[in-house]
User: What shape does this take?
Amino acid sequence: MNEPERKVKLQIVDMAKKYPNGDGVEHINLDIYEGEIVTLLGPSGCGKTTILRAIGGFHDITSGDILISGKSIAGLPPEKRPTAMVFQSYNLWPHMTIYENLSYGLKLRKIPKAEIDKDIKNILQLVSMPGCEKKYPNQLSGGQQQRIAIARSLLLKPELLLLDEPFSALDAKIRQQMREELKKIQSDLGITVVFVTHDQEEAMSLSHRIVVMNKGVIAQVGTPTEIYDHPKDRYVASFIGEMNFIDIDNQTIAVRPENLSLDPQAKGDLKATVRTIMVLGHYVQVTVQHGDTVLKSFVDREISNQLNVGDTVSLEIGTHHVFAKE
Amino acid sequence: MKGKKVVSLVIAGAMTAAMLAGCGSSAGSGASNDVKSTSAGSTASAGNGSVEEFNLYATGSDNVRAIFETLTDDFNNNSEYAGKYKCNLTFMLSGTGAASMTDGLVAAYKANQKDSGYDLVDLSGDDLSKVVSQIGEDAFVKLDKSKIPNASGVSAKSSVATDYVQPYRGTTVVLAYDSDKVTDVPKTWDDLTNWIKANPGRFAYNQPGTGGAGDSFARTSVYNYLPEEAFTSDDPSWEDKWDDGFNYLKDIHSSMYKSGGAVVYPAKNQGTLDLLNQGEIDMCPNWADMVLSQRKSGQIKDSIKITQITDKPLTGSLQSLAIPTFGAHQDAAYAFIDYMLSEQAQQTMVTEMAAIPLIDTSKLDMSGFEDLENLDTSNFRIQSIGDLSTDFNERWDNEIATLG
Amino acid sequence: MSKAAKQKIVAYAMVLPAFLIVMLTVAYPIVNSIILSFQDEKTGKFTFANYTYFFTTPNQLKNILYTLFVVIVTVVLAIVIAYLLALYLRFNHSRIAKCIGNLYLLPRFVPAMCAVYAMITIIRDSGLINRIGAAFGQDWKLGLMYHASGLIVMNLWFNIPFATMMIAAGLGAIPDSIIEAARDVGAGRMKVFRAMILPLSVKDVIIAATFVYMSNVGSFTTPYLMGGNAPKMLGIALFDQFNKYLDYNRSAALSVIMFLLCAVSAVVYIRTNLKDKEWEG
Assistant: This one.
């Protein structure tokens, strides 16, 4: 993914944005390559949206610089930036038809009407919503509105598409579908996308690279597998996927449930007691108590059939990470 | 969507209704006066059955209300009649049309009520003429002066229904002027006319119909051209003879106070008095009591003094009490009339409202109100032109106000 | 009795007092006024004379036109100023804006009479402004008292806070993302205003305008204390007819005329409110 010949599209250099109350982000350094989907991931208040809005021009920055294709955009107002933003909700202008919503930005750019009409037709095809030009936003469902919002952004052929939790207000099934479509559109057009979410599953399924944010600073940058397999610290480990933490001596062992096996014969040294057994289809989730901590393990049916609540088992730790004890 | 429409309709309906009510209430403002019933003083023994209660109806501005509350309270608690009679005051605030108390009185008479509750009424000269013209003086009890010992020293007499009403205080319109600016104080009407013309923009009178001072000035101006008897007549034929007087008002119009390039007649007595106090004018007609009480309280400058025209004085008015025949409790009513002419009550009226006392001023403390002693109540120039006043005001509004 | 029927009776019983009060205090006087307005003062016979008087007598006609002039100038200025103020409050997040946002309604809580007298002491030819001028050796005579311009100044004082409140509520309902999305596609501040903020708030502006219009057509206190002698606002003209000339039939006719003038804006208000545009759904 990080082949050296790839062109850097967006470069953030030691950027800081501080709010009057002291919150904000600092020491943000990030390169995003052309054609990449990069997700800013973190809990609310971690600063991910602040970074996105700074790129879009909706915040001025306190220090540092933002460059697109090598040119600084830090001082420009949103309308002068080659970016397009899709917001969480209320993207569309309620008093305009879908056609008017889509054509507004193009008209500002003095594009001939025939061309506008053609572009709109094509883009509505792309987001699978042909023929809705005459409708008003309130006549569309939430998912449809977000498709139009994405279409409107794409029509302007931005160098960078910014999405601020665009699917968070939609229900789970539509959200899933929208992710797939976004990914397809992105690969069709080869456009660079910065996506903000607090949903790690969304980040994992959508992104080429994930930027995990923690309290205003970047915790780790990497591909989904890198982040999943090699979390840099306990925070990242806990935030991405499920993780058990076992304190042994002066260390914390982090092991994912699928890497924690149980021995019904309890031959090992790490003893634990079975608390619950839950069959989740082709695998079984078993929780066990080890000292004061409850641990989670995914085992197959063959093992679970030998277990009863209250049994003593021993733990076998497979692939794991070691962090300094907190 | 339907629900929203219904809500909108209801709101719109309510709004329309409120608006209509607004229009309606302004149209009805004259009829619905601010009625304030005050039961003054409640000492007089709850268990004592010998206290005779009676009702007093009065009307006027808010300062008059305060005086009446003080006096009734004093009557009920401190006077020689305390414990014997108890006065219940019903006060109707004027200012939005003073027709109501007199209307009520007339209505009660015409309805042939016996115990109407109107045991004693307080009437200004204008109100008295109005009532008498409608129901006659016989609607009131012919007063037995022996029951009003304090009236023996009172020389002022009402020109209307003389034997049926008892005047108890007076006031008159005078010329108020700033003594720092006016050195040649006018003595006669001609002096005044000359002064006005020699000092353009320094004189103002308030719009007739918005206050008695302006009424008095405008009517005196007009009736100076008519025989004296016309001033107390409501015969419509006099209207034809107003022309000379209105020409006089037109003549002095251009010398009146100006604001924004046009002549302005302020609303209300206070309007001209404020201009005088602010130094925007140097002279205006105003009520003696108003000027003096405001000067005493420091609301207006000490340099403001009053004077009366000697040959054709501005009109004054006597305030009188009368006992309607259709009320009850006559003895109590007599007692209150007598109380109002006591030194104590007269002193209160001088001190609190700068009224002209009707008893011998040597018995009263006149300090601060010495100006009053020069105003002779026995030859007050009274005006009562009855319903002609509405035509007068309308003509003034149409001919003088519109001169610009 | 069925439960539904009982509920219905309870519902009607709850509405009844309000209904009766409205009928008694609103509907009855209105009907009465309308009947009175078509009656001859002396004979009580049907006539249009009470109406023709106001439209043919030059002074009365001037009063009507003067009232409309004062009211319309008041509406236009109040709405423009209120709109600018509301925009400032909506989009400026400075401490000053916050402060103004907390204080701008204050004039609503000052009793009308006090406010008018306070204004008079400031703007009269011998008032505060004149005295400030005098300190610099100037003699400023504003000429606002007893003049239409003074009335308009006072009306603005009363109406700007109210109009601002209504428009600010409308502007507050426009989400930031709508404006940001417009900036994002390339619209500058003026274009955002013309294409987004104005169309999305125009309804509130019209409603605010109708309220300002209505409350000023029948205004009394301000013109009574600050107005000139002629021409007059209709509120004063009505006062004259009723209290000074005691002509109740003409008073009724003038009330109806004023009501009709108000009704113009009521119609605008109702239309604005009822006409659900397709997008408002």
